[in-house]
Amino acid sequence: CMDYFQVSLDHTIVVCDDIALPIGTMRLRSKGSCGGHNGLKSIESHIHTEHYARLRIGIGTPGHEDLADFVLGRFSQEEKKIIEEM
Prior knowledge:
The protein contains four helices and three strands. By secondary structure, it is α+β, with helices and mostly antiparallel strands. It is elongated. The relative contact order is 0.24.
């Protein structure tokens, strides 16, 4: 996308989910590691750097649920309210 639309890294922010943050929490950083996040790993492999802005949005931690099912699943009604307020 950055190449196609000719957008520089300085004008890019990546928004992603984060199971390490409680639901409703956001964390903005200008650089850092992918922290095991596969989407961020993919981005870093394409742009060849960890120096890009990222906004991580907390989705909470899965209980006994499979990680993929949890991340791709739907929010409960209570969680939707938190997300909407955020």
